[in-house]
């Protein structure tokens, strides 16, 4: 593993100022109806995605909770982007509309979305 920024792979930190963001991360939290988990995963796996073609896109993960969640959220998706502007461009374009097909009747409630600035990225040579 190696740090990806700063001199010698170290971030340039002075102890006073916050680190510059290295990427923009979007987390979506889903509460999938009981018995609909397989269909939810299948829709994600088979949907036509244009993410790899999007400027600034870095990676995507769909994660399932490995135990009974205490907050009913049993899936999280995470996408990483070079910048907020790259994400916003994708979000406002036609490519995003395809994702809406994954939701709908499979969810107990609307998804919740959170945004983060990644301040320090540690990756192996194989990537995320």
Automatic annotation (TrEMBL):
This is ABM domain-containing protein. PROSITE patterns: ABM. InterPro entries: ABM_dom, Dimeric_a/b-barrel, Heme-degrading_MO. Residues 24-115 form the ABM domain.
